[in-house]
Write a structure and sequence with these properties.
By secondary structure, the chain is mainly α. 54% of the residues lie in helices and 5% in strands. It contains four helices and two strands, in the order H-H-H-E-E-H. Strands 1-2 form a two-stranded antiparallel ribbon. This is Siphovirus Gp157 family protein.
Length: 164
Amino acid sequence: MSGLANDVRVAQAIIAQIADAGIDSEDPDFATLVESECDVLERLRRIIRAARHTNAQAKALAEMLADGRDRKARLEKKADRLRAAALWALGELGQKRLEAPDFTATIGAGRPKIVITDEAALPDDVCVLKREPSKTAIAEWLAEKPCPGAEFGNSTPSLTVRTK
């Protein structure tokens, strides 16, 4: 196959892989990656830049989610402290009920708290058990002997991108 014919074949395959990845005409990267005219190597440069940019966005979003989870926890803690202050004050005033146009608050008996005195003594029926394979432990096991239910697969090539 000639160089140009191979380039065209690879370019078409790249476009098919981009479509398989769910990048369609609605995606902002679509025009840059698929519609523009360029040779196959330039298209690959654009794909790698788009992958780097997308990865950076994913990292930024992860940080925003972590910040959001932290903020949510702080807000929930604040709400709990405010409710506890209102509960205390109603108790001090001897009031069981407080009415307002937008809410009614009442003091109830509540439920007894569960206190775990010895976690190891609890029967399995009252525990949530999560069984999850440890790939690190499996790899260590396989390095020494066969492991039932697991084996080493073929390695896959990886792409390393270094920035200047």
